Amino acid sequence: MTSAPHDSSHTHVTGESEFIDDRPFVAGELVVGIVCSQVARGKLVQIDLKKALAVPGVVGAYTAKDLSENYWGTIFQDQPIFAAEDINYFGEPLCALACETPEALRKARRLVEVKVTPLVPILSIAEARKKMSFIAPPRVIQKGNVEDALKNAPHRIKGKIEMAGQEHFYLESQAAIAYPGEAGQIAIHSSTQHPTEIQHVVAHALGLSYSDVVCIVKRMGGAFGGKESQGVPFAVIAALIAKRTGRAARVVITKDEDMVITGKRNPFENDYEVGFDNDGRILGLKVNMFSDSGAYADLSTAIMERAMLHCDNAYFIPHIKIEGLICRTNFSPTTAFRGFGGPKGVATIENILEEIAEYLKKDALDIRELNCYQGTNNVTPYGQTITQEIFPRLFKQLRKTSNYDQRKKEVADFNRVSKTHVRGLSMTAVKFGISFTTRFLNQGSALVNLHLDGTVQVSTGATEMGQGVNTKISTIVAEVFAIPQNAVFVMPTSTEKIHNTSPTAASSGSDINGSAAQLAAETIKRRLQLVADKLFNTPKELRGRKPAVMGLAEEFNIVESNSADHIEFENEFVFNRSNPGDRVPLKEVIEAAYLNRISLGAHGYYRYPGIHYNKETGQGNPFFYFTNGVGASEVSIDRFTGEVKVLRTDILMDLGRPINHGVDYGQTTGAFIQGLGWVTTEKLYYNKDGSLLTRSPSTYKIPSVQDIPRIFNIDFLINDENRKNLSGSKAVGEPPLLLAISVWTAIKNALSASARKKPVTIKLPATQEEILMNLY
User: Fold this and answer.
1) pTM for this structure?
2) Is 734 a catalytic residue?
3) CA pair distance 150, 260, nearest whole angstrom
4) Which of 324, 404, 408, 585 is the least buried, fewest Cβ under 10 Å from its Cβ?
5) Which of 172, 734, 769, 770 is the catalytic position?
6) What CATH number does the domain located at 268-437+614-775 have?
7) DSSP output for 185-203
8) Per-block mean pLDDT, blocks of 10 residues, the chain (776 long)
């Protein structure tokens, strides 16, 4: 379609874009601070607020006792807004202070006295397994007879892969402002991916009806999954104080506070056993997945499910059993993160393929091409059929365009002579299922209002977090009416306009909400076509005149079930296909519709069709379609320091027919670099007491310009075969992140050529320390 710029690009550059804390203070507005636990686990004995309340400018202090309902949770309602009796992680909110000035807040926070009886925390997956500390029963996905397949396989490998968490590091920390309204109503501006969850939990917590609460989201300064659920407590606290005081209340936490209080990407430890033949074809695979949920469930059960569903990735496995178990520890509740559980499943199988190649002394790409979905080997472990044979094409094309075979020889030659560095080259794939695995979330609505001047306002349930969903939606609506994209305005997301929204997540924001907007726009367009058809049957001298002047006895009457497909829209004009020379400006048709009392607004509703999945049996069609891709990365490792440089990355994505090439290119680039941080540098360190050490940019290393590939090539596969989705496009937000696993497997490949200990087993992320420990 187009490469129109991001709709907020100019305001981002000029500093005009409004985020939560940019909103001007209103008269009497209060600043709010949160007092948090300083132990990872314990019994809360007392919170003494007397001294804090005596500070001038302190309006109030609030605890669990001030809430109608203290517990919340996206799946299980097990997490308190404020700890009431049990403290379960370092940084858990205990109370909130409402103050008239930041100075009063700083002073009062130091005077809150908390008495706690410390208990021994659980601070690892291993400890949780030993103490049987789990959330929810185990889940299983299986196909065939894995035990017989393993027993009869010519070769078997057992292993373990450990994958750490990751901090979202969005630029705008968690933030919310609540404004009290009439009759106890509350309006909340929140930095959230899920305004409906904010609305509902606030209503429960304050004893209000859903219709008493409105949540508005203009935009977020980044989210990456970290604001899908975890914005809830901050919105509730702001709303509680606004309701109690009758004054606006602002909760904007610092980056340090955010990193301590909020959850990260789930750590995983996966045990596996794989059986394969002499060529490297996988015959059977057994994987036991263990994730760290932190103190509460949050989205961990859904994340585990996604990890299990992606354990096959791009590869056919005839006999397989995947079991997932979620461990409860005393860290902040882990949560959604770009890719959800997908990266954990994909990293597991890609690691296994590298190990098979190392075992057989073969090229890992040959092993991947042998095992990828193709021909009749096209059924996933959960029973969904892969309808497009895309991976042989992807591997073949990128193998050629990246000059893989020649570079593989050059890497081997380099490693034979270099005394200071070692190189590795690896190509991995991604098959990312698009749709929420929780079926009811796969729905969305849109409201489209066409104005008399030909401009359009669109409201949807999608939230803009920088990913360009508003740009795509405006493109879609503009194409329906054949008007310039800058004539379409996507409005702030609001639960009073679009109710029962699903979170903007699972890479489905553009699909679901864009489709709903398109349906609404097309409803209006059909009405305009019928009006235009009437106009073309009206004498030209009367077309532009109002009905009363025209002397018409009756208004235009249209029957919406009728069709006028011969009426076409082009460049802000409308014409009859049989007489294209006779054109009427679109604005005249719009005015004629209005004067004849024909609605210029419409509601659209869309849901993904044909998806079903039985969570108990682990079988079904959980995904509407798959976004696919392959990535090849070459790395250089300093033998003395363990420092990694990514020399080159080539990415080839199957995105169908992109709605906006520029936005998709940017999403591919950003997702890969964020994944690069996960697999190399973004290591979370905790003290023995469970407190987070890496709580700022000085201690937590996100990728910089020095970390990105020196040569970075991104290309999109030409694929006009996709007919299932909106305009033939495919979702892009999460899938490219998983191609950064190619950097991790390239590191593994390099170490295989150099390390003394074989086979090479490295943790993820492969930090300098981790690499040095495997080099010597």
Assistant:
1) 0.96
2) yes
3) 44
4) 585
5) 734
6) 3.30.365.10
7) -EEEEE--S-HHHHHHHHH
8) 82 95 97 98 98 98 98 97 97 98 98 98 98 96 98 98 98 98 96 98 98 98 97 98 98 97 98 98 98 98 98 98 98 98 98 97 98 97 95 98 98 96 98 96 97 98 97 97 97 98 96 97 97 86 55 70 92 94 94 95 97 95 97 97 97 94 96 98 97 94 96 92 83 97 98 83 96 90
